[in-house]
Amino acid sequence: MKLSPLNIILICFLLISCKSQKKEDTENTNEIEVVPAKEPQKPASDIIIDPIGHGTAIVQWKEKTIYIDPTGGTKAFKGKKLPDLVLITDIHGDHMNIDTLDSLNLSKAEVVVPPAVAEKLPASYTEKLVIINNGETKEIQGISIEAIPMYNLREEALKFHEKGRGNGYVITLGKERIYFSGDTEDIPEMRALKYIDKAFICMNLPYTMTVESAADAVLEFKPVQVYPYHYRGTEGLSDVQKFKEIVSKENPNIEVVQLDWYPN
Fold it and tell me: Which of 25, 69, 85, 198 is deepest in the core (most CB within 10 A)?
């Protein structure tokens, strides 16, 4: 069949149009930007932790200021907000320090203690005390505080912390639950904890437990975050990096947070 000049022109036009469209499609495909998937964001916490030293901390939540085992004298708390609550875990000097308590302005504070601590504090503190036993939960200033046992398990360490004397604490602040272990080993009561958002775990020998025992307990009760603290023993500082490696390897969903508990 012989094509007319007009048909030839139309065919050429169609071929050119198809080629142009194909090139345009290719260019558009190349321009597509691949956006990497974002990791889910963890809910922001409105709790601020101020590590004062060793086993001493300040917890700030909204308008509430909580001192945990205040030690270190006036200097350690210079410029800090006055406490609404003071929580003391045990009778030893790195937890209950009467000189430090005497130096602080506790005019608006309630002091939460186990009975053994209450017995050793001067009578001037009696009106401020809220005594709480192992296993009890009390609401103080709108904050739920649960007393968790703290004690030793190893035969050679039983002399340091007997069961029933001291308290660890679970503090509920809004939707978050914070656990301070006090001086303890990896006891069943710790391993049985549920729904802990921030866990402060001791690990120092010979008084409490090894980093391995601490990590094993943490892996069992699975807090959202764990903070090694109270990790100076008679042989220096415990290997908190090893603790982090054990926890992170076995359960990367648990965030290990290292604060500076020994600035000097």
Answer: 69
Separation of CA 56 from chain center: 14
> Per this entry, what is the length of the chain?
264
Spatial CA neighbour of 218 closest among 236, 203, 199: 199
Distance between CA atoms of residues 11 and 112, nearest Å: 93
Q: Which residue matches tokens 């500076």?
A: 260
**pTM assigned to the model:** 0.83
Give the H or E element holding residue 60. strand 56-61
In the CATH hierarchy, which fold is given to the domain comprising 47-256? Metallo-beta-lactamase; Chain A (3.60.15)
Among residues 39, 27, 71, which one has the least CA distance to residue 53?
71
d(CA 180, CA 223): 12
Cα dist from 152 to 133, 203, 206, 219, whole Å: 17, 12, 10, 19
Residue 163 near residue 193 (C-beta atoms within 8 A) = no
Contacts of 165 (CB under 8 A, 6+ apart): 90, 91, 114, 116, 151
Kindly report, residue by residue over 59-86, the tens digit of the pLDDT: 999 999 999 999 999 999 999 999 999 9
CA distances from 43 to 40, 46, 108, 229 (A): 9, 10, 32, 24
